[in-house]
Write a structure and sequence with these properties.
6 strands; binds methionine sulfoxide
Amino acid sequence: MDKNENYQLLLAQVKAMVKDESDAVANMANVAALIQETFHFWWTGFYRVIGEQLVLGPFQGPVACTRISFGKGVCGTVWKEKRTIVVEDVEQFPGHIACSSESRSEIVVPLIKDGEVIGVLDIDSERLATFDETDRLWLEQISEVVAATL
Ligand code: SME
């Protein structure tokens, strides 16, 4: 299967999985697992907006930073700018927060509900330039489904 076919199946699985489950943590946990089972990225997880910070939520992968402030790092910038950011080389992103020295590229997608960012989906790769427009389009659809359950 190519990347589009993998994402097509993944999106269908995500929709089916959250359909009958209203618990946010359960849904974020299983969506992170589904993404990992499909693509085996270095790290896949969620941060939720709690007060003035993004706080680590369900994830798959190595231990990560627990709190990120508004406007800081890739995640905090996505929160501030309310848009997906694709980083081909984390060393070129000013203020990138290195939770793991293995991470080389990254995509962060906002979870938006009622026009507000309520969290982010963050995926890291140990290879450069892993993510492109195809990933952005599919992951935004997945994030939309997840955000609706939060
Ligand atoms: N690199 C992110 C921090 C989160 S970890 O990658 C899991 C950032 O710069 O916001």
